[in-house]
Design brief:
The chain is mainly beta. 15% of the residues lie in helices and 41% in strands.
């Protein structure tokens, strides 16, 4: 994924564990294709982006979808490490979102 240069100009790999996430469709009783992100906050933001679009299936029916963490991908070994059970992160229905094109109210007086 990322590389940083050593002092002599050669590249040294940066290895990390990347989380694996999936969105569960409750009514279909299935999980969607996994996505790989660095942390829960980025996964929640990705779900928020989809939910803001009322034309998307998730945006149109947020009460039917939940975000789960499924495990980790270790980029140094290429191994996937799954959790015993999917770990619930958040329900799409619990996200507080302004629709696309509308600004979220600000607490600033300026």
């Amino acid at each position: 994924i990322g590389y940083k240069k050593k002092n002599n100009g050669r590249q040294q790999g940066q290895f990390m564990k990347i989380n694996i996430y999936s969105v569960q469709d409750i009514k279909a009783a299935t999980f969607g294709s996994p996505i790989f992100l660095l942390n829960d906050n980025l996964a929640i933001r990705a779900l928020e982006d989809v939910c803001r679009n009322p034309e998307s299936l998730i945006g149109g029916h947020p009460e039917d979808f939940n975000l789960y963490k499924l495990g980790e991908f270790d980029s140094s070994t290429g191994r996937l490490e799954t959790t015993e059970q999917p770990e619930f992160i958040i329900s799409a229905a619990n996200l507080k979102l302004a629709p696309l094109g509308e600004e979220t109210p600000s607490n600033d007086d300026n």
